[in-house]
Every structure is written in structure tokens, then in C-alpha cells.
Specification:
Oligomer: single chain
Radius of gyration: 24 Å
Largest sheet: 7 strands, mixed
Shape: globular
Structural class: alpha/beta
Strand content: 15-25%
Bound molecules: flavin-adenine dinucleotide
Helix content: 25-40%
Length: 465
């Protein structure tokens, strides 16, 4: 392990944002110190994307075995053995963690394990040693947030960190927050056999997604027996003999074994020397310009620590962008509307670009099409329900073709894999007619993208409104 010293770049935090910056900077021949107090890979690898998706895959296997008779296959579903699920989940994480550590080492990046603190605009103190850099990148990420007066005890009132370590399937759970994390855990626990109720302040689940997607998700969740209270504030929680009693603003009370608090994540920026060294901060988030430069010329910041979408791939892109800027490349700001977003529940919800409400809010005239998955052969084979909604600029002349595709919003099993095509369409400013000319392989779910654009271009194939 290195013992202090001078580097081109010192990075504080080895999660998605920090390690992506380190890997890319090393490609420019930069000497990089990556300081991490826990494990490289951060939230995404150890407490986020990867372990939750492993749970969701186990949930899918449970549903497939429970529902196999629908396909003429006789199996019996005998239950969930949580320790075995956790060991599968941990195996996936360990394997990826090993791979990441060896990639970092192969690029000659010095990883320093320890709790770091910014002590000047160019240096970080760790384990009593000082690491100076021509540039410092702050990437200390985020941690689960709670509500005022709501104490997380990690036993009956838990966060996603605790939920990922739970070695039993709870009989019942109230989930506070119907955002991505709340919806994904609701999906997993329901598939594992729990009674689940989501409480959400906003009038829909996944408040950042298009209303049409949320409606489909809510319909399918209802059918799956997942309950939800929308437009409902949380009031209080008390302990009962068997768990918790959650009081809601609509005078309802919900009893459950556990309360999962999934009301968002707050940036890790306190007591780290940021403000003392001139780094401007708003509501805990480090302020940055469109190229992730902070108010201090020698300091940049990336990932969940800044007020941009809290997604691993956003952290990667910001980290890479900073490394390229410091490497002398002409870097373009990220267009955050063009970042794909996926909720990996059953059904999945995936989107890129703007929603209908955002289009209205920005005064953009649009045309839209909703293509139901019921018209798609592969989706019927999979017995999944959902839709593809595509939003494009309204034609500029009566009877003309729509302009650029501004948003694609998908719901259904496996649709997360389709959003990569949709992001090319949106980010390359394609028009429905351009996409309609492209042939999609049959029978695949990708045809829903083709069909929706054919319909928008005025030449629908398997579509009736
Ligand atoms: C349950 C859950 C599921 C998620 N699922 C997805 C998903 O499917 N897809 C997706 O794109 N995103 C997902 N996310 C979000 C994603 O995990 C984050 O956006 C991403 O991890 C942010 O990366 P980061 O580098 O900014 O921060 P982090 O990953 O939080 O990394 C910050 C790192 O800094 C370290 N650190 C903090 N302070 C110090 C210090 N003083 N000294 C040294 N090291 C320090 C921490 O230990 C940590 O390793 C999920 C998050 C959660 C919680």
C-alpha cells in the first residue's frame, strides 16, 4: 500500500463515479490514487444495483416455477431459502468485486484503503498520511435517507442496506417510498411470498416516470397482490408485539413485520473538509458546473454526491468525463434527459427522454403512440403485459411527418434490455420515419420499438388504436 505521496489525480471514493474516473485517467497515463474506506465498487456493487438485481432474478425464478403449469411444465414451488438466495447474491458480488480489483490494479492505480478527508484544495489525509494531487475528485456518493422523526433501527425499521442482508422472507412489509428502490423491493418480496404495501406521497408509483408507465405498473402490481397507498403522507411508526404499526396521513394504520424506508438517498458530504476548503454545497450536494467542476479550480465532483440522477451509469459517465477533461480532451456536458432509466421490477419499467408531462411543461407540441405488448408475438409467448409509448415532436405542417423522437417509455418483462436501442433513437435525434425504415427481427420484443415508430410515421403494421 502506498504511504502518501504526490499524484496527478487523487480520487476520494471508489464507487461507480470514482473508479470510472480512475480507470479512464489511467488510460491517459495519469498517476492516480483511489481512496476508499470500504470496498471499491461502492454502493452499486455492494449495496445497490448488483445485489438487488440478483434478488430480482431469484424472484423471477420463483415466479417461473410457481407459474410453470401455465406453460404445461409441471414443477412444484416449495419455498424460498433466504440464506441460499443470499449466498447466490454474494457469489455474484464477490466475483464482480474480484474482477474490478484486478482491473484497477492492472491499470497501475494505487488503491488506498481508509477514511479520507480533504485537507486542502489539493490534498486528502488518510490513515495519517497525506496524498496530494494536481487535481482532486470528490466521489463520496450517498447513503439512505430517512424522514424527520423516523428512526431507522436496522431491525424492524430498515433501509435497503439492511434489506439486502435480511436472512428471512418477512411475512409482511410496509415500504415507505414508491420510487425505484421501493418498487424493486416490493416486487422481490411479493414474489417471495410476503404481503407488501407501498406508501407513496406522489399520486403515482415511480413519480419520475411517465404517468402512462406508472398506470400500467400499478395495474400489474394490483393483480400481483401488491397494495399501495398513493398521495399519502407517512405520519408515524410504533412498535407492536409482532412488528410495526404505520400511521398514514389518510387516517389508515398498517400493521406489518417490517417497515422499509426507501425515501431517497442523501449525499455524503458532511465533515469531510469540503466546505472548509471552499467547495460550495447546496442542501448537502456539491455544486458543480456542467463539466463537474466545483467552485474550487483544482476540485471536481461526480456521482451521487452531486445533484444529478442517482444512477451508476451516470456516475460512470461523469467520472469518465472528468478524467477526459483533465486529460485535455474537449468534453461535452452530459444531456441528462438522454440517460436511460430502468426499474427492474416485474414488470420492468424503462425509459429515456422526456415524459408527456415534461413536454407539456416545456411547451413542446408532441404526438404520441402507445403500442400494447399484447400485439407483440414474443411478449405473448412470455405472457407479459405492458406497452411501448413513444413521444415525438408534432409535425410542423398539417399532414407532415413528426419531428425528433423525444421520449420512449416501456413497461413489460425484459423491456430494460430494449432501452439501449431507444437511447440511440432519442440521443441521435432520430425521427419516427428513420426508425420505421429499420427492420426489427421477428419474433422479438424489439419489434415493439419498430411498431410504435411505424405507427407514428403513419404506417402502422400490427397496430390498431
Ligand atoms: C438498493 C439500490 C439499488 C440500486 N440500483 C441501481 C441500478 O439498478 N442501476 C443504477 O444505475 N443505479 C442503481 N443504484 C444507484 C447506484 O448504486 C448509485 O447511483 C451509484 O452507486 C453512485 O455511485 P457513486 O460513486 O457516486 O457513489 P457510491 O457508489 O456510493 O460510492 C461512494 C464510495 O465512496 C466511499 N467513501 C465515502 N466517504 C469516504 C471517505 N471519507 N473516505 C473514503 N471513501 C469514502 C464509500 O465507501 C463508497 O464506496 C442503486 C442504489 C441502491 C441503494
Amino acid at each position: 500500500m502506498a504511504e502518501g505521496g504526490h499524484y496527478d489525480i487523487v480520487i476520494l471514493g471508489g464507487g461507480s463515479g470514482g473508479y470510472a474516473c480512475a480507470l479512464r485517467a489511467a488510460e491517459f497515463g495519469k498517476r492516480v490514487a483511489l481512496i476508499e474506506k470500504d470496498k471499491v465498487g461502492g454502493t452499486c456493487l455492494h449495496r445497490g444495483c448488483i445485489p438487488t438485481k440478483a434478488l430480482l432474478h431469484a424472484a423471477e425464478v420463483a415466479d417461473a416455477s410457481r407459474e410453470s403449469e401455465k406453460f404445461g411444465v409441471r414443477t412444484s414451488f416449495e419455498g424460498i431459502e433466504m440464506p441460499a438466495v443470499l449466498s447466490y447474491q454474494q457469489g455474484v458480488v464477490e466475483r464482480l468485486w474480484k474482477g474490478l480489483q484486478s482491473t484497477i490494479a492492472s491499470r497501475k492505480i494505487d488503491t488506498i484503503l481508509g477514511d479520507g478527508k480533504l485537507i486542502s484544495p489539493t490534498s486528502v489525509a488518510v490513515n495519517g498520511a497525506t496524498y496530494t494531487g494536481d487535481h482532486v475528485v470528490l466521489a463520496t456518493g450517498s447513503v439512505p435517507r430517512s424522514l424527520p422523526g423516523l428512526t431507522v433501527d436496522g431491525v424492524r425499521v430498515i433501509t435497503s442496506d439492511d434489506a439486502l442482508r435480511l436472512d428471512r422472507v418477512p411475512s409482511s412489509v410496509v415500504i415507505l417510498g414508491g420510487g425505484v428502490i421501493g418498487v424493486e423491493f416490493a416486487s422481490v418480496w411479493r414474489s417471495f411470498g410476503a404481503e407488501v404495501t407501498i406508501v407513496e406521497m406522489a399520486p403515482q408509483l415511480l413519480p419520475l416516470e411517465d404517468e402512462a408507465s406508472a398506470k400500467v405498473l400499478q395495474r400489474v402490481f394490483r393483480r400481483r397482490g401488491i397494495r399501495f397507498e398513493l398521495g399519502t403522507p407517512f405520519q408515524s411508526v410504533t412498535y407492536t408485539d409482532s412488528g410495526v404499526r404505520v400511521a398514514l396521513g389518510n387516517d389508515k394504520q398498517l400493521d406489518a413485520e417490517l417497515l422499509l424506508v426507501a425515501v431517497g438517498r442523501g449525499p455524503v458530504s458532511a465533515d469531510l473538509g469540503y466546505e472548509e476548503n471552499g467547495v460550495a454545497i447546496s442542501r448537502g450536494f456539491v455544486d458543480v458546473d456542467p463539466l463537474c467542476q466545483t467552485s474550487v479550480p483544482t476540485i471536481s465532483a461526480v456521482g451521487d454526491l452531486i445533484n444529478t440522477p442517482q444512477l451508476a451509469h451516470v456516475g460512470f459517465a461523469e467520472g469518465i468525463g472528468v478524467a477526459e477533461r483533465l486529460g485535455g480532451l474537449d468534453v461535452r456536458p452530459i444531456d441528462y434527459d438522454g440517460v436511460p432509466r430502468i426499474t427492474y421490477s416485474d414488470p420492468e419499467v424503462a425509459s429515456v427522454g422526456i415524459t408527456s408531462a415534461q413536454a407539456a411543461g416545456r411547451g413542446i407540441n408532441v404526438v404520441e403512440v402507445n403500442y400494447p405488448l399484447g400485439g407483440n408475438g414474443k411478449s405473448v409467448i412470455l405472457q407479459t403485459q405492458g406497452q411501448a409509448k413513444v413521444i415525438a415532436e408534432a409535425p410542423s405542417t398539417p399532414g407532415g411527418q413528426p419531428g425528433r423522437v423525444l421520449g420512449v417509455h416501456l413497461v413489460g418483462a425484459r423491456v430494460g434490455e430494449l432501452i439501449a436501442e431507444a437511447q440511440l433513437i432519442v440521443n441521435w435525434d432520430a425521427e419516427p420515419d428513420d426508425v420505421a425504415a429499420l427492420i426489427h427481427p421477428h419474433p422479438t420484443q424489439s419489434e415493439i420499438i419498430g411498431e410504435a415508430h411505424l405507427a407514428l410515421a403513419g404506417k402502422p403494421l400490427h397496430f390498431h388504436a
